[in-house]
## 1
Amino acid sequence: MNSKEPIIISGAGPIGTITGYYLSTQGIPVILFDSEETTPRDHRASTVHPTTLDMLAALKITEKIIPQGIISEIFQFRDRFDDRIVAEFDYQALDDLFDHPFALQVEQHKVVNTTHKLAENSAYFTLLRPWQVTNHIQDEDGVTVTAKNPEGETETFRGKYLIGADGGRSITRKIADINFPGFTWGERFVIATTEYDFGTKRGGGHHYRNYVAHPTQWSALIKVAGDDMSGLWRILLPALEKDDSGFKQGSVEWVQHKFVECLPYEDEYNIIDINPYNVHQRVAETFHKGRVLLAGDAAHVNNPLGGMGMNGGIHDGLNLAEKLVDIDRKNGDPETLLSRYDRQRRSMATKYVQAQSIANKKLLEENDINIRRKRLDDLEATSLDKTAARDYLKKSSLWAMLQDAEKVE
Ligand SMILES: Cc1cc2nc3c(=O)[nH]c(=O)nc-3n(C[C@H](O)[C@H](O)[C@H](O)COP(=O)(O)OP(=O)(O)OC[C@H]3O[C@@H](n4cnc5c(N)ncnc54)[C@H](O)[C@@H]3O)c2cc1C
């Protein structure tokens, strides 16, 4: 590969940015386009797992994001129906596997902006924003990408490969005519933020990441650092089709009411913001079509329970970047390497991220009383058995997925 010809990346979210930064550190020029002028600050990923922290450490990102986040060793499952703590899992149990045996609660935009800062002085890293990628045409030698500049004019760029890291609605995936099969959950998810401290005894003594099971009012409760590091709590709630709360779904009153139903420790929470989301479970039919590659949400989307979307996407991006470096250094046949990327990451997205995130939702929302008690009892037993708890943590941290992927030829 002529290393003067860049790799073009559509999308400078976490996946495009980290993939591009890795390539630039290896002397491969990258041009990233993002249609937004600045990194969106909406409430998305907030949990970075130990596998990802260890990978990002090699890029010096981990040391920069740790001071901006909260170290979270333990995560907890509760049952709101029977009002009990069901299970606790502690990443310290895997301290023989990880240099960072904890999750970091850190907002997605901090990860992205920190990486942009690290990359900004690299001669190999060019970020163009707000530039919107509108089209691409590939041939035997490369890809011609069309993008709209900030003045609304169209310009073309030539790259050796195009990485579509442009999120769940990826235009790259659509133009490459790659199907995105799967389904959309019937209910929307609502995320609300409050300064109320659920870590105190009065607030229920929660850890920084908690999943609360209930047949109709399940929730996830997570602490993030906030801009000034004083701490904010985010609750994720389902906005069910059948809702007898009497309040407009997604309104402040509805969220207040849900807080009290889900976590009845206080009757007034100062709610800072509320964001509704449609949630999908989809995996692209291929992550590799000629010179067009997909990574992150462009390749797969899942519900946020377990915090695996961004983590899995970063794993995609770094796997792909290593293969592109091998191609650059003529360490293998390009088609063989990129097909292996597709086989490794697509199969694992289905086997681990999709399976685990769907199982997490089913566990929390199960409304058959016997099934729910059995599932929660099983989870409790898993947490109390050292070997079973380690196996569970290996899966939830995506360590098992990475090991499994290595076996894919
Ligand atoms: C509520 C919620 C909570 C979540 N919590 C977690 C969590 O705790 N842990 C976790 O791992 N994951 C979590 N996720 C998932 C995570 O947010 C996504 O997996 C992650 O954002 C994917 O990153 P990405 O870079 O692939 O896509 P995105 O973050 O969507 O970035 C895509 C970028 O592409 C740009 N773009 C789009 N189209 C174009 C175009 N045509 N031209 C140029 N640029 C374009 C966009 O502006 C954007 O910047 C959560 C998601 C949600 C909704």
Note: Residues 10-16, 33-36, 43-47, 108, 132-133, 165-167, 171, 191, 277, 296-298, 304, 307-311, 313 surround flavin-adenine dinucleotide (CB under 6 Å).
## 2
Amino acid sequence: MSGEELQYPDDFVQRLETIWGIGFLSPGGPEEVGEIVKGVDLAGQHVLDIGCGTGGPAIVLTRDLGAAHVTAIDIEAPLLTRAEQNAQEAHVAGKTTFQLVEPGPLPFPDGTFDIVFSKDALIHIKDKAALYGDVLRVLRPGGIFVASDWLGGENTESSPEFARFRDLGHLKFAMATGEETAAVMRQAGFTGVATRNRNAWYAKLSQFEYEQISGPLRDQLIETVGEEIYTHWVAVRRALADAATVGALRPTHLRGVKPGITT
Ligand SMILES: C[S@@+](CC[C@H](N)C(=O)[O-])C[C@H]1O[C@@H](n2cnc3c(N)ncnc32)[C@H](O)[C@@H]1O
């Protein structure tokens, strides 16, 4: 994607990594990645990470959780350059492949992966039926889809807090609710579909993040991105914390299994 189309330009990545840690464009760090895959044995497994960003989750899956290999895809080339550097520094370059893709069908043959993982990226993909059908296709029989995504609730469309967050921010969303997501996953052919609403966790954390951004991290952020971007971002983060507090923004864990032989 060309420079002006980037949703995650350098200054935005710097802001996000200042609060969430190098390699993370989503909240919770290694601990939350562990929560997403809790109970799934990754040892020796080949994993696809959709929307890998700057590589933090892929590093955790290989370095800490035993995945044999992670193929990590994203649509923004500069993020993949950062991800490769981060993987080198974490000594998992040999277990990770970072690949630029076009939005749309996953460029992999049927049954390529044991596990398909994603953290907080599917919100950007509009055609959920096509997405989950394709995720099912690239999994082997018995393979597992395990992810987190930013979902909405029944109040999201009518929430002034969410409207304020959406209107102040620059990201393009295609949000679904937990019920809608579970239904579209079942429709695609997944079994054992389960969702876990992480709103209570993130409502609290987003308030803490706001306090950090407007307090101890203020000077560092202004030095990195300048006062104008910083001031606007504080307003975005206030709106985000408010949207999470009223339950209109819900990080949600997702699980599903491709029917077939489990190994
Ligand atoms: C909020 S970031 C999350 C990044 C990473 N998963 C993490 O947790 O740090 C969302 C990511 O999804 C990527 N993305 C957006 N649309 C995509 C698509 N159609 N296919 C793959 N990645 C996509 C963005 O470029 C961005 O890196």
Note: The chain is about 45% helix and 20% strand.
